[in-house]
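Before going further, it is useful to explain how the protein records used in this thesis are read. An example of such a record is reproduced below.

***
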Amino acid sequence: MIQLKKVTVQLPNGKQSTREVVVHPGAVAVLAEPQPGTVILVRQYRKACETSLWEIPAGKLEPGENPDAAAIRELSEETGYQASRVEKIHRFYTSPGFANEVLHVYYATDLVAGDVHLDEDEFVEMERFTKEEVTQMMQRGEINDAKTLVALLWWCQTDR
């Protein structure tokens, strides 16, 4: 659950101003590599953007949930895959100008296929892509999700 707060801030010049801040529980995202050189992306409709986006599997943290556990949970829910190895690669603020959301990005390998467990309001299409394919998709502007761009740029620049 997110909240919107209106807060008063003290500015460096001594004056006060108001800010609207979205308070967010945080989230996780997982760049999953089922085979060397292949990544899993999911495509889903995002109402806020009024379009479908290719993304790495991701989701909000539950209250008090450990991000490492949430990454494993989200990967399984959206793709059915269980990861034997999960490594945190980044942690960043998604939109610090108005939100406190921290996103934890993970890299998952040694995957074992299983059953997808989507929430009843989730409709997700899953597909595998090679480094060359995602590089071309990024160059053509077909990947517009920031967390996915961060993860894919990291992946494409590594020797993994």
